[in-house]
Amino acid sequence: MVNFLSPKSLINFALSSPKIQEFIKLQNLNVEKLSLNISQKGFVIRLKFFYFNKPLVWKFFTSYTREVKLSTDKIKLCETPIEFGKQAVEWLTDLIRFPVTAVQITGPSFPEIENILQWTKIHECEKLTMNFIDKTEGGLEKFTDLESFDLNGSDWLKPEHLKNCAAKRITLYTMDWDANQLNQFIRCWFEGIEQPINKLENIEIQLKFVPMEGLPIEQIVSGFETKPWDPTQRARIYRNYHKKEFEGGLLNLEHALDILRPDGKLASVSVFDKIVNFVVWHQRFPVASEQSFSDNIVV
Q1: What are residue 195's DSSP bridge partners?
Q2: Which is nearest to 162 in space by CA: 128, 203, 119?
Q3: Nearby residues of 172 by Cβ (< 8 Å), 6 or more positions away
Q4: Angular region, 247: left φ>0, alpha ψ -120 to 50, beta rest
Q5: Stretch 74-100: mean pLDDT, rounded?
């Protein structure tokens, strides 16, 4: 019977008894991703499989909405969806022997998520997204497997938090930072050879406000020795393979300022309108065919 059940059905079958649960643990469910969406409205678990199109979706809400009524997913109404959702994740990760890979937390802030970053079950995630969260306990130092960290409209983050952030790609939108705080972030990277920030590949920071005369790049890089682009030291185009070309996947850094760290690591700082890009050149020159392709597109 087990051979004819889908991975989704096997997991629901494991809910029937502890003996069945122990048996399902021995099966290879071909799990691809386990993502969480946490907000004041509810807690959503989405489990995606290889070789099977339909994901497992469990939703925990306080009440029915039109969206919930029309849904065919497994839904539980409860007074404390965050608590029930976390219990479900504890049970599910133990069953499938697979960690949470992506977490999205959406505000406005509410008490149940103020300590969400201290929850150990999400510390192995590869992608962390936080939207409109003003207050949170804990930091990013325990997220050692992060590939990307996206923040939008969340004022709790300070430059010093990024020193302990192991994410390779960081995107910060509508940040209430000034030139001095941007300078402080660069200082964290410059002095962070032995810190998690050393894994950083690129960070894009979009500011809420900039002075009428524009964002002074001289103030942002104050205290660092900078140099203009040298074609013998790095490529002109930075290719972000995790973004499509029309979404900023190709970044022209011909007019950026370069900073060389004592360990030989090179970084470029670019400012355009309200957006600051900081690129670390772990590979100073891409593959020749990729570089010529980029140069032909970006002018």
Answers
A1: none
A2: 203
A3: 150, 151, 152, 157, 203, 204, 205, 206
A4: alpha
A5: 93
Q: Calculate mean pLDDT across residues 243-250.
A: 59
Q: How far apart are CA 215 and CA 197, in angstroms?
A: 24
- Angle of helix 81-96 versus helix 18-25 axis, rounded to 10: 50
- Classify strands 226-227 and 237-239 as parallel, antiparallel or unpaired: unpaired
In terms of Cα–Cα distance, which of 210, 258, 252, 197 is closest to 232? 258
Q: Which residues make beta-bridge pairs with 278?
A: 203, 269
Residue burial 1-18, b: 16+ Cβ < 10 Å; e: rest: eeeeeebbebbebbeeee
- For residue 238, which of 190, 186, 280 has the smallest C-alpha distance? 280
Pairing of strands 266-272, 257-260: antiparallel
Per the CB < 8 A criterion, the answer to whether 89 and 74 are in contact is no
Percent of the chain with pLDDT over 70: 90
User: CA 43 to CA 61: how far, in whole Å?
Assistant: 7
The tens digit of pLDDT for each residue in 138-189 reads: 889 999 999 999 999 888 899 999 999 999 999 999 999 999 999 999 999 9
| pLDDT tens digits, one per residue of 253-265 | 999 999 999 999 9
